[in-house]
Write a structure and sequence with these properties.
single chain; alpha+beta; Alpha-Beta Plaits; four-stranded antiparallel sheet; 4 strands; 31% strand; AtuA-like_ferredoxin_dom; AtuA-like ferredoxin-fold domain-containing protein
Amino acid sequence: MKLHDIAHGRTGDKGTTSNISIIAYHPEDWPKIEANVTADRVAAIFGPGVKVTRYTLPHLCAMNFVVENALKGGVTRSVAIDAHGKGLVYAVLELSL
């Protein structure tokens, strides 16, 4: 099962930092998400040089990740075609649970 089967996400960016939120579709899936979607697993997606901090919001069945240095210089300095915060959530939603 992939994370996107049981959750959706929202993202944003500011400078070189991305903000990634994961929200369970159904409360009964929250324990599985909380146990499996860790800061270490998210950091592994983006490779070396990133710092990931996870904040859980159990009453909302959601979590938020602050991913520092994910955007390689930030939106205004990047030559990448939309490798910004809005696209990064899809990499996280591909995690296998």
